[in-house]
Amino acid sequence: MKFKNIHVIVNPAAGKQEPIFSYLNKAFFDSYSKLQVHVTSQTDDVFSIASRHANKDDLVAIYGGDGSISEAARALYGKNTIMGIIPGGTANVTAKDLGIPLDTEEAIALLMNGSSETIDMDMGEVNGTPFILRINLGIMAEMIIAADAKMKDSFGQLAYGLTAIESIWKCDPIQYKMIIDGEEINETGVSLTVTNGGNIGIGDFSFLPGITVTDGFLDVILMNNTSFLSLIRVAGTTLLQTESDVLKHWKCKEIIIYPEKPVKYICDDTEKEASILTIKVLPGALRVLVLNNN
Questions:
Q1: Is pLDDT above 70 for 149?
Q2: From CA 232, how far away is CA 246, in angstroms rounded?
Q3: pLDDT tens per residue, range 90-141
């Protein structure tokens, strides 16, 4: 699949330290595609740039982490312009979910050769805000909040593991009333995730088998407690990719969450706070360029 007009948005604060402009110049030298590159700044962020080029360029590609990709997705969802991804972050969850090469030069090559295809990727919406990955409450939220930029620069993906250990001992269970596709469910948990994709951001591990970004559903995953035995069983579930009663799992198109008190949560990579979360799937909302494995 080839594109005439390609716009690449570069986040200079991305987690990787590499000569991205040299890679782009090398790949697009004497190319059929017309390339434009835009670097983000405090006054011109990914969302603003992508919004200006939606329905104008054939392809808008983002070099950055999952936060940058989420911003671009919010700007491009429901539009004709296709989104490309050049993974440049710490965890690169979106790229892993979509099977996009993590090597920068390989990902750039995908933008301009015939080994790619376009898929219609699901997104979600929470309290009116679109998201591409997931909503995290409890341990998973605290883990991301605690992993600041300095820690991610120093430790990479290990930063999330370090903050997870700290969060496990600090996080208290919360009572949740959930309306899942019209059915009321009451549960207590230390971690609640409503996810569009399966990858957890550490290596190639996924929450549970069967979670995809193209099935038209969101997956709700609840962890009840952080006892040593439960943690061992969660690890086994993740490693072996099997269902387990230690993680409660529902598939749905819509969920309303009523926590017992206002809670901080993570929407993709952004910290928010709410007393009620209304979440729904947006099926096939985003056109994304991926590797054609056929």
A1: no
A2: 10
A3: 889 999 999 999 999 999 999 987 689 999 999 999 999 999 999 999 877 7
Burial level of 257, CB count in 10 A (0-12/13-18/19+)? buried
Token pair, residue 198, equals 């399966």
**E-state strands within the chain:** 5-10, 34-39, 59-64, 82-87, 116-126, 129-131, 134-138, 174-180, 183-189, 191-195, 218-223, 247-252, 254-259, 263-267, 270-274, 277-291
Q: Do domains 5-114 and 129-284 have the same CATH topology?
A: no
Q: Does domain 129-284 have CATH number 2.60.200.40?
A: yes
**Chain-centre distance of CA 288, in angstroms?**
13
Q: What's the pTM value of the predicted model, to 2 decimals?
A: 0.84
Q: By mean pLDDT, which of 37-51, 67-81, 156-170, 202-216 is the weakest?
A: 156-170
pLDDT for the residue numbered 172:
74
The correct CATH number of 5-114 out of 1.10.3210.10, 3.40.50.10330, 3.30.420.40, 3.40.120.10 is: 3.40.50.10330
Segments making up each domain of the chain, as ranges: 5-114, 129-284
Which helix or strand (DSSP H or E) is residue 23 part of? helix 20-28
Q: Which pLDDT belongs to residue 31?
A: 83
Token representation of residue 141: 């939220």
Instruction: Please enumerate in sequence order all residues whose Cβ is within 8 A of that of 87, keeping only pairs 6 or more positions apart, or say none.
Output: 65, 95, 100, 101, 102, 104, 107
